[in-house]
Design brief:
By secondary structure, the protein is α/β, with parallel strands linked by helices. The chain has one domain: 3-Layer(aba) Sandwich (Rossmann fold). It is 45% helix and 18% strand. It is built from twelve helices and eight strands. It has an eight-stranded mixed β-sheet with strand order 1-2-4-3-5-6-7-8, with helices on both faces. The longest helix is centred in the first third of the chain and has 15 residues. It is globular.
């Protein structure tokens, strides 16, 4: 286990590969931790410097009192990259991690070569929707919305054929710190990056899944296509947790993008 003390936050991260390798940073989705990327990382070519981390209030990263703002989450990512000396990195974010990627590209372009916006959007849902979910979790804990989340997160075939995977992710979700989960929900609810994302000028890949009930493909495509020159990839028979459902296909899409932009040869 690796930890970085960044201001008043202790960030849990995992790093592998050579220090001078092309850097790829992965940010997790709401209610998950860095382990969602295990299968993807296992399929990537050797020689990359791969960094995964737990967002504030998630996994083994410390959980400060809320409320959280998207600026906090973006700053956390930038400070971790500064701490590790990462530059010219490709930042891969899933869901809220993809919002962080957009914010980081807008504010800390000095750190980035490209972004991968996975199962995400410049604005996800409405503030009222998130406030309703916050109220539900305050009353009944994360357990109160776990089953509804899993319906949105996994393809129907995955839920039917891979119950152990779904059960494992349910355990991951319900064991997250409640205050961290609430804080990040509030951050999503108040965030609208439509205008700033449309001003981005760096290579971008959007990844969507055909059965994603949280960020449907058209929503992902709309966000990604607002960035000139971006690419888009749709993965079928998968949902919001596509890195867990189709890690080899996800890794192949990512590797192809890394080659296209010259990050690897």
């Amino acid at each position: 286990m690796q930890f970085a003390e960044i201001g008043d936050l202790v960030v849990h991260y995992a790093e592998q590969g050579p220090d001078d390798g092309p850097a790829v940073v992965f940010a997790n989705a709401l209610g998950t931790d860095l382990r969602i990327w295990d299968g993807v990382v296992a399929h990537l070519p050797p020689g990359l410097r791969v960094v995964r981390y737990d967002m504030r209030g998630h996994g083994l990263t410390s959980c400060p009192d809320g409320p959280y703002y998207m600026g906090d989450l973006v700053a956390d990512a930038g400070r971790l990259m500064d701490h590790l000396g990462l530059r010219d990195a490709v930042f891969v974010g899933l869901s809220i991690g993809g919002i962080v990627a957009q914010g980081l590209a807008a504010e800390r372009l000095d750190l980035l070569r490209a972004v991968v916006l996975s199962n995400t959007a410049a604005k996800i849902g409405t503030e009222q929707m998130w406030q309703d979910r916050i109220a539900l979790v305050r009353e009944g804990g994360i357990e109160a919305l776990a089953d509804a989340n899993l319906e949105r997160w996994f393809a129907r075939s995955t839920r039917a054929e891979r119950p152990a995977l779904v059960a494992g992710v349910r355990a991951m979700l319900t064991r997250q710190p409640r205050e961290g989960y609430l804080g990040c929900m509030a951050a999503i609810g108040e965030t609208d990056l439509v205008e700033s994302t449309a001003r981005l000028r760096l290579p971008a890949l959007g990844i969507a899944a055909s059965e994603d009930g949280s960020t449907p493909p058209d929503l992902v495509r709309e966000t990604v296509e607002s960035i000139p020159g971006s690419k888009f990839r749709l993965i079928r028979r998968a949902g919001h947790m596509v890195p867990l459902e189709a890690p080899a296909e996800y890794a192949a899409a990512l590797e192809g993008f890394l080659r296209d932009i010259g990050h690897i040869s």
